[in-house]
């Protein structure tokens, strides 16, 4: 079964590149560009992982991550935050499960995704 990844970034170039790369790797991908859409899309799409930009035009990625993790039905979904505007010493939202500094290369992206979404072995019945 293919894993579902939701990507939220208001930079459409990054959104397109990351979406295409993950589709190529056989993930089911949904991308959105507005933070206000996140909670509804999470309910409908039921992602196994969320990639979330930290600085959005209409919301804070850190706040969105916290709100997601406060709801019991979403608490278990790993959230990876990425940003070019967070310096190495700046504290990250405690609720996030991973972080990528922009610009990141696709190898870094795949490493984080594979760590948080390990390939599960099919059990023969």
Question: Which features characterize this protein?
Answer:
Rossmann fold; alpha/beta; 5-stranded parallel sheet; 33% helix; 125 residues; globular; disordered C terminus; 5 strands
How do the helices and strands line up, and which of them pair or pack?
Elements: E1 4-8, H1 12-24, E2 28-32, H2 38-45, E3 49-53, H3 61-69, E4 79-83, E5 98-101, H4 106-116
Parallel strand pairs: 1-2, 1-3, 3-4, 4-5
Report on the structure:
With 125 residues, this protein is α/β, with parallel strands linked by helices. It has one domain (4-116): Response regulator (Rossmann fold), CATH 3.40.50.2300. Helices cover 33% and strands 19% of the residues. It has 4 helices and 5 strands; from the N terminus they run E-H-E-H-E-H-E-E-H. Helix 3 (61-69) links the parallel strand 3 (49-53) and strand 4 (79-83).
